[in-house]
Amino acid sequence: xxxxxxxxxxxxxxxxxxxxxxxxxxxxxxxxxxxxxxxxxxxxxxxxxxxxxxxxxxxxxxxxxxxxxxxxxxxxxxxxxxxxxxxxxxxxxxxxxxxxxxxxxxxxxxxxxxxxxxxxxxxxxxxxxxxxxxxxxxxxxxxxxxxxxxxxxxxxxxxxxxxxxxxxxxxxxxxxxxxxxxxxxxxxxxxxxxxxxxxxxxxxxxxxxxxxxxxxxxxxxxxxxxxxxxxxxxxxxxxxxxxxxxxxxxxxxxxxxxxxxxxxxxxxxxxxxxxxxxxxxxxxxxxxxxxxxxxxxxxxxxxxxxxxxxxxxxxxx
Length: 317
Hints:
Shape: globular
Strand order of the largest sheet: 3-2-1-4-7
InterPro entries: ATPase_NBD (IPR043129), ROK (IPR000600), ROK_cs (IPR049874)
Strand content: 15-25%
GO molecular function: kinase activity
Largest sheet: 5 strands, mixed
Oligomer: single chain
Protein name: Putative sugar kinase
Organism: Streptomyces lydicamycinicus
Number of domains: 2
């Protein structure tokens, strides 16, 4: 029997999703469980095992050649461990060893969730056809990944491209990572909302104080909400321009809940990028919304497994 499928896991603080993915990125079988993030590590691993068990029960499981995991991080690809900030029960947790015990002799590849999203966008999404790209998730946190010279570049630990913790304000507020003025401290959804509230923004009748509520107010022309998104856009632009200057990317792809604000985010982001990406070799940098949506994690985990196994992605039809 042909072994041409990848089993993929997308592990986050809310949901553990799994799929069997064919060489063209089609999801043949899906499975999911809520993440018991408030439980101990063994309980979380049991949820992973249930997702894998459901996939393994499908007839197509026999065609699986490799397993890819995209996990909230930090991840340790060299050691096979994960320490997701939103899953307290997992600290240096031996995830790869746990998955290997469930999947037999198949190779298991671990990358961070930002790297997985990048793999998906490069394979089938907004970065397709670009040899050098930065892809970002801007949501509760800010993560990302890199494609360099046409290949996914996870780095030695699987965390390369983690733009959220580039400092763009050296005297800025302390960040949860221990640094100051990080992109995430300014541009993540909770921090967009925090800044708007601190500067006098009032939520609408629905009482929504999230970044989505700020986005709705900004779309209606609220000046405080607009300024909060403009500051987030400048932080993102500074981080993107710094990355482009360092490694010469030509496109930045932005997904996640904050990107759902649309032009409220992208218009000031593109304007700010002109202020930061000034050198000739980065001045043509483009910024576009992500295309892969909620399937990015599993598709990207499958793509990472394919790259590891075959040293190349199979082009989509």
